[in-house]
Fold these 3 entries.
Entry 1:
Amino acid sequence: MKIEFPQCKVDFLQMQAEPVVLVAGGRAPSTGWLGKTACRRPVWAIDRGVDICREAGVVPAILIGDADSGSAIAWQWAEAEKNVVKVKHPVDKDATDLQLALQELSIRHPGAMALLTGGWGGRFDHAFSNIFSLLEAEILGVCPGGLIDDAEALFFVFTGQNLTIEFSDEPKAISLLPLTPVCSKICFGGVHWPLADAVLKMKSPAGISNRLAKESTKVEVSIGQGILGVYCCWNESGL
């Protein structure tokens, strides 16, 4: 399944799932980037993500959260749209707004792929929670696609899977991040430092700051065992 973003085209070779764009309340992507990414795809606004949607003129299909961080003006804007489904939760709860959104996604769109934007920036604990909440959603039947905006992205590759990324905008860095204790039989092509049947460990990550090989516009990643994050950075300013 190929998904096109403004700066790259990602082919999740073993996956066939409807992508749903979840807009959270972290660092906002540019309005133009979000408008292009949201085109012809379902969009869900998660609490303060409704402000990001409003700024970009993207009307979400669903607005979900506890309204503790989204502005009243943006919530009113979304609530005024008759086709927007509102799912409101109490402020005091055990799960994060993203975790609740992923639970709701598993019910309304079982088997969908979750693509999170507005998931970067700000506090590290938020980004950490966002990454592993997406991964855990696989238990619910949601396909974790990754986190992406115009500055950086993290795509997930699971045991026995292949991922291809074709770049229209060359990234400044491409890194492989082991998201399980051990990731084995990793192959990584199209880069300056390729890998073949390599092992990466969470406790000693060594696949950082690679780059495209000369005249290459595409990378290919496969993994035999584990969960691997393929991280791309286009703009280091303001991260």
Entry 2:
Amino acid sequence: MIDPMTKCRSQHVSPARFVQVSLLSLALLMFGAVAYACTERFERVYTPQGSAHLTIKNMNGEIRVNAWDRKTISVRATTLAPAKVEDRADGDEIVISVKRHLPPGAASFDVSVPPNTSITLSNVMGKIEVNGVTGDVTVDSIDGDIRLQGIRASSVDVKVTAGNIFFEGDLRDGGSCSLQAVKGDIDVTLPAATPFDLNARSLSGAINIGDFVNSLMGGSKLRKNVSGTHLKGGARLSLTTFAGRVLLHKK
């Protein structure tokens, strides 16, 4: 049988330990309150008169752009201090940027645009997604994966230092699609009926063009460089990675 006094002594907390736990709890509560107080919302709606060009310059955080069936551009961002969002609209030219600061804080963007909007995105750290856009797409990132889905643009130009690039969409005849990673895979999915001129290069990874290997004419099929024409050629498709794989799939 356990002595009740022994049980009570075993559950006793010393005053010093109580003070430590209390101070830690207070510190966590104060930190949470400060973090909550420093979180801000940025919301804007723009009404372009024609095909708009939207530029977003971020430092740290995700950027997500989705096409919708409205004529307006909606930009929502959640920021963590000291990040501060600034915007400028000059006709159909819209520029949104996170003011440079050290430490950079964080800003995550959720954007909706008409499909024909041209997009220019730059980021230092964070994932980038673009969905359903038919306007030109330009992306420049240092660290983070880039995913482009449902894209049908005349010009696509993507560069990332450390991150994978995923592209699923179509290429317009006479257009160009250039995807370049210093360290990361390039994964592309295209319709079988899309004509293109391919130039794929990988310095230290495999190149796998899947079922397109049977229809690619001319050029070369070397281990580190694959080029050729699919269906008499059309759009220029350039895929380059210095440390990663190049993967091409038929949709």
Entry 3:
Amino acid sequence: MNNWFLRGDFGAAPTNYSALVIALLLAFACGHAIAWIYMLTHSGLSYSRSYVTTLIIMPVIVAMVMLILANNLVLAFGLMAIFAMVRFRSILRDTLDTTYVLAVIAIGLACGTLKFTSAVIGCLATCAIMLYFWATAFGTRYRYNLIVNVQWLRPAGELAELRQLLKRHSRTAQCASQRSNEGYAGVDVSYRLLLRDPARADELIDELRALKGVARVSSLHAGDESEM
């Protein structure tokens, strides 16, 4: 019975069962590594448990497909015909999610073609790059990190003193709005600031409140512009 089972694969080339088991286990392990990195670094709103499990099972399936094909062109065309009848309509909201899918497919291909060293090195390189992007927040932009609204009671021509104080604490100070109000000679102004030291924002607010002519100050901390 066992002899019949082991000889049950009839193909152009005999099946190396030990290599098959190693390929599937390695694809499973590398898929787990990619899935763990995804779970650790994911920061969007489209997290899905089923997507994480897909990252694990997909390299195993791809490796199995490559082992079944075994460089057989007829089987390859047959597989294309079968997949043509199956249509996947899952929409990935994040482009980085697509990168993870491509990574596990590539790892599955490497395992399925018995390129075990390439699979391990590719998995480690992918994990290292994804961790680098997560740890460094690469690609995040900070054009401003604080919005300050000031009620200025002195004439608008004397705003230079206010701007000088803002420039002392910030790399850039952009006037977002300036509005005159009836009832007093001053104006309401709003500035977008890129602070030299974000930890000293409270110190800036205290100096603004102590400045002659400032009646009211309000501030709002702005987030990064990683998604627009």
